Amino acid sequence: MSSLSEVEEAEKREVEAQKAWRAEQFKQRRIDSRLSFPFEMRLPVATSISFLAGMGLGLSHGSQTAGLRFRAEHAHKLPSTSTGWYLYHKSKNYHMAMGGVKEGIKMGARIGFWTAGFFSIEEMFDRYRGTKDFLNTVIASLSVAGVFSVWTITSKLAHETSPILSPDANPILRFFLKHTFYRQFCAGENAAEVRKTVHGLKNLGFKGVILGYAREVVLDENQAGNLTSCGDYEMAEACIRKEITPWMKGTLETVEMTAPGDFVALKFTGAGSQALFDLSQQADPSPALKEAIDSVCDLAASRGVRLLFDAEQQAVQAGIDAWTLNYMRKYNKKTPGKAVIYGTYQAYLKATPSVLASHLAAARKEGFTLGVKLVRGAYLGSDPRHLIHDTKTNTDNAYNGIAASLARREYGSILQPTSAEETIFPSVNVVLAGHNHASVRKIQALRTSQAEKGEQQIDLVYAQLQGMADEVSCDLVQAGLAGEGEKKIDVPRAYKYLVWGTTSEWEGCHGEGVGEEG
C-alpha cells in the first residue's frame, strides 16, 4: 500500500510540475510577445477588432448611402396617402438596413484582411530576424501600404498622364502589370503573341474567339457635355493622323489576326475625338472616319470574320445604334441568314427591349439579318442611374426574357413587338455574352428541347471574357465536345473574348469589358 501511494504521489508531483512548467512557459511567451499576446492569440483578436470597427463604419456609411439612393430613385413617385407613406418609410428603412449590413460586411472584411496581413508580415520578420523591434513593424506597415496602394491605383493607371504612373513610360510598372494582370486577361501585344494565345484556346476546345483592339475613351459627365468637332483643315488633319488612322490600322490588324468564323469587337470611341463628337450628336461619321470604318467592314466581310459593334456609354449610344443599323443594312443582306455586323444590347437598361424591338422591325421590313450581342451591361459607373433597372433581379429577368425570345424567334412579355401588326420575327444571329451560369443553362435547356423536337434553331454562340467565368466556359466546352456527332442534341459553341494591345491600352478598356460580359 505504501509503495502504491508513493507512486500516486510521484504522479501528482509530475502533473503539477508539468502544469507549473506550462504556466511558466506561457508567462514567458506573453512577456516575450508583442502586446503581451502570443501571435496565435494576437492575430484573431486584432482581426476581430478590426472587422468590428470596419463593420461599424460600413453600417453608418452604407445605410446613409442606401437611404439617399432610395430617396433619389423614388423622388418622382412619392406616395399620396398615409398608408403609402408608411410603406414608403418601411421600404426605405429596409433598404437602409440592408445597405448598411452589406457595406459593413465589405468594409469589415477589407479592414480585417489588411490588419491580418500586417500582423502576419510583422510576425514573419520577427521570426526571420530573431528579434522583435520597431524595424519589423515599419517593414510590415510599408509592405501592407505598398500592396494596398498598388491595388488601389491599378484601375487609374490607364488615365494617368504622369510618366511615373504610365505603364508605357515606366518599364518597372509595365513589367509588373505585364506578368500579372495583363497575362491573365489579355491576348498579347503583337500578332505573334495573339496567335499563340488563340491557338491555345482552340486546342482546349473553344470554337473561336472574339478579339478586340484595346483602345477606348471613357467620358465622365462633364466631358460628355463638352465634346467638340475636330473642325477643318489643320485640326482635322491632326485628328486623322493622331486618332483615326492609328485606330483604323489597329482594327485592320485585328481583323487580319482573326480566322474565318471568329469575331472582332469594334469600339468606335477608340477612333478619338471626332468619332466621339459625331456619335454624341447622332451625326453620320466624318468622311475620314467613314472611310476607315468601311475599310474595316470590307476586310472583315472578305475574310469571313464577323464584327461586333460594342455598346458604350449612353452619351454616345444612340449614335452607335444608328451607325450599327446602317452597316447592318449594307453588309447583312449579302448572305441570307448570316450576319457580318452585330450590335450590342445591354439588358440592364430599361429601354433595351424597345430599342431591340425597333431594330427587329427594321430588319424584317428591309430584309437583313439582325446580329445581336446580348450582355447585361458595362457602364454602371457612368450611365445615368435612372436608365438602369432598379434591381439585379429585374436585369436578370430582362436578359433571360430577351435571350429566350431571340432563341425562339418569338416576341414575349419582355421583348414585345413595336406594334400589334409586327408579329413576324426576322432572321437573327446571336452572341450570348454572359458570366451568369443560370442564364446560360436556361438557353442550353431551351435549345436542347428545340433540337430534340427537330425545330429550326438560330445561329447562336456563347461568350465569356478571357480570364473570367472559366467554370461557365469549361462547361460549355465539355458539352460541345460530348455532343459532337450526336443528333437531336444542341452542341454549344463557346468563344472567349480577348483584347490585345499595350498594357496602358488594355487598362483603359478592361473594366468596361468585365461589366459588359457579366
UniProtKB/TrEMBL annotation:
InterPro entries: FAD-linked_oxidoreductase-like, Proline_DH_dom, Proline_oxidase
EC number, UniProt record: 1.5.5.2
Pfam families: Pro_dh
Record-level GO BP terms: L-proline catabolic process to L-glutamate
GO molecular function, one term: FAD binding
Oxidoreductase among keywords: yes
Record's function text: Converts proline to delta-1-pyrroline-5-carboxylate.
Family in the record: Belongs to the proline oxidase family.
Descriptive protein name: Proline dehydrogenase
Organism of derivation: Cudoniella acicularis
